[in-house]
Amino acid sequence: MFRVRQLCYCAGKKPLLADVTFSLEAGSTLAVIGPNGAGKSTLLKCLCRILPAAPGTLEIQGRPAEAYAHKALARLISYVPQAVERDDLFSVQDFVLQGRYPHLSPFATVSRRDQEAVARALAWTGLESLARRRIVTLSAGEQQKVLIAAALAQEARLMLLDEPAAYLDPYQQEQIYALLERLRRETGITLIEVTHDVNRAASGHGRILALRAGRMVFDGSPSELMTSGVLQAIYGKTFTLTRHPATGCAVALP
Amino acid sequence: MEHLGSRWLRLLPLLGLCLLALAVLPFIGLRILTPAEVWLQAGGPASDIFWKLRLPRVLAGMLAGASLAAGGLAFQALFRNPLATPFTLGTASGASLGASLYIGSGCSFVLLGVSGVTLSAFLGASAALALVYGLTRVRRAMATETMLLAGVAVGIFFSSLILLLQYLSNQAHSLRILRWLMGGLDVIGYQSLLQALPMVLPGLILICLLRYDLNLLTGGQELAASRGMNVDRVKLLLLLAVGLMIGAVVSVAGPIGFVGLMVPHVCRRWYGPDHRILLPATLLLGAAFLPACDAAARLLLAPAELPVGIITAILGGPFFVWILIQREPRR
User: Fold this and answer.
1) Residue B84 pLDDT exceeds 90
2) What's the average model confidence in pLDDT over B302-326?
3) B306 vs A109, B9, B15, B182, CA distance in Å?
4) Average pLDDT value for chain B
5) CB spacing of A73 vs B210 below 8 angstroms
6) How many A-B residue pairs are in contact by the CB < 8 A criterion?
7) Structural domains for chain A
8) A33 bridge partner residues
9) pLDDT digit string (tens) for B175-196?
């Protein structure tokens, strides 16, 4: 459903992404890893056209991205930022309703369909009981769920997540990961997740893409990733590889 | 959401306040009129004062108050800054400069039914907005901080030009400019009201149509873009709407400050951040607040009339400080 061909993005004269090429099937999941400043977030923002990539480099469901109207594209791709704005005063349900923006017309009020989509998104994320609380009063993990719920209300087939568990404790991290896994299994949504956690990338996704200094340096399966040579090439440091005593999966220790 | 119905009911007090202002304020002034005089002696002096002086003045105040408040609300969402208003960001200075140039030049013309002063004010407001927008385009960044700083700089620049103009004009023109800069609703008849409507109404309608966009903009432009907003176009439309409204209002009433700051913040405290309810609330409170200030301006030093801009600014100054203090602990 998604094809990226020689994607480049420059901020001024400085190239942040160069020659990124990959394609993604509907219903699959992809982790994007790499050191700080490698261009992971920039890639996500190019994919949902927050940032303008060069024409012809991005194809969605067989059509070039620039052929889609803004709202039409947003009905296909949703984006989950790292964290909510600290001074966001909206209630949970009103914030999630904002995810319906690409389905709303300026000449119409919020429809029953919109309200149902919000209710479903709240149910998926288990936020029904918090629906009328203000976002700023929630914990970081709950706030992250609110962001995911808003993206779900958008009813897009592809969800881009920028470090969805970056600021969370291990318990809340696990909750977010379980939610994503359940979503993928039960709705067939396509996921792309940017993460700093090599082990999360390897255990949660069938395929991993690594960036370094704006270029793709790895594209492969978890087992191909979890070798000291590959990790050394991505991060420029050595990792100790071992097996998880309980699950037997490969684990990288920094 | 499901509770929006009851939220609309919450607007009723403000609607009542607005209707109360419309029903009561035209009777108040140097001479308090009674309904009996107005209704029973059609064509008498009381009826004339009511229909030809007081009522148009109250209506002009309502229109100006609603526009100024909506302009402030739009800018606060667009710039994501509680202190952003058409006044702090130079739009009103631009409109004032346009109008001052017109007054200072001493000429007088009407173009396509729009008076020269309205047209000049609109052009001035547009020039200020175009400068702000242009400055951010040069940087090619979507940063609202850049826009905010550009707005402040443009505002100071245009204000200095007005001072320069005043310095260079002869005493009579200079005095007219000064009096006009204080802001006032001393309109006579419905002429200036009808002049302003063709610009104010499209602006207001545009802002109402952008209510979902205003909500989304408060969460940041990147998230808004990811939800399918054409951010550049929405920004341009909002600037255009505010330019139209502020240009028209400033040309009729002069630069009346602080309404655009106070009213949206008060409404946000009462109604929360959702522009679907916040926008109508802001319009209603603005429409009730400004004519009330105007009535106070007429009464305080009667028989002299204070410029209403002085009343709103005297109320607004301390409010500005209060907002600053309120913001501090949350940062």
Assistant:
1) no
2) 78
3) 43, 36, 27, 9
4) 84
5) no
6) 84
7) 2-76+157-253 (3.40.50.300), 85-155 (no CATH)
8) A210
9) 878 877 777 777 767 888 888 8
pLDDT in tens, A160-216: 999 999 888 999 999 999 999 999 999 999 999 999 999 999 999 999 999 999 999
Identify which has the larger pLDDT, B322 or B86. B86
Of B212, B225, B273, the CB nearest to A50: B225
Nearest CA in chain B to A115: B1
Question: Which of the residues B144, B222, B227 would you substitute to probe the A interface, choosing the one with the greatest number of A C-beta atoms within 10 Å?
Answer: B227
Contacts of A79 in chain B (CB under 8 A): 223, 226-227
Give the C-alpha separation, B313 to B306, whole Å: 12
Residue A220 has pLDDT above 90, yes or no: yes
Q: How much of chain B, in percent, has pLDDT values that exceed 70?
A: 90
Q: Which residue do the tokens 């655009």 mark?
A: B260
Asked if B212 lies within 8 A of A101 by C-beta distance, the reply is: yes
Judging contacts by C-beta atoms under 8 Å, the chain B residues touching residue A90 are 215, 218-219, 272-274
What is the pTM assigned to this prediction? 0.89
Classified by CATH at the fold level, domain B4-330 comes out as ABC transporter involved in vitamin B12 uptake, BtuC (1.10.3470)
Say which residue the tokens 């400080």 belong to: B321
Q: Give chain B as a 3 state SS string.
A: CCCHHHHHHCCHHHHHHHHHHHHHHHHCCCCCCCHHHHHHCCCCHHHHHHHHHHHHHHHHHHHHHHHHHHHHHHHHHHHCCCCCCCCCCCHHHHHHHHHHHHHHHCCCCEECCEEHHHHHHHHHHHHHHHHHHHHHHHHCCCCHHHHHHHHHHHHHHHHHHHHHHHHHCCHHHHHHHHHHHCCCCCCCCCHHHHHHHHHHHHHHHHHHHCHHHHHHHCCCHHHHHHCCCCHHHHHHHHHHHHHHHHHHHHHHHCCCCCHHHHHHHHHHHHHCCCHHHHHHHHHHHHHHHHHHHHHHHHHHCCCCCCCHHHHHHHHHHHHHHHHHHHHHHHC
Spatial distance between the Cα atoms of A48 and A43, rounded to a whole number of angstroms: 9
CA–CA separation, B103 and B200 (whole Å): 22
The per-residue pLDDT for A217 is 93
pLDDT at B205 exceeding the cut of 90: yes
* CA distance readout (Å), B183 to A112, A208, B154, B259: 47, 64, 21, 12
* Domain ranges within chain B, ordered by starting residue: 4-330
Q: What is the pLDDT of residue B138?
A: 67
Instruction: Collect all residues of chain A within an 8 Å Cβ-Cβ radius of residue B211.
Output: 106
Q: What is the pLDDT of residues B90-139, one digit of tens each?
A: 888 898 898 888 877 767 666 666 677 888 888 899 899 888 877 776 66
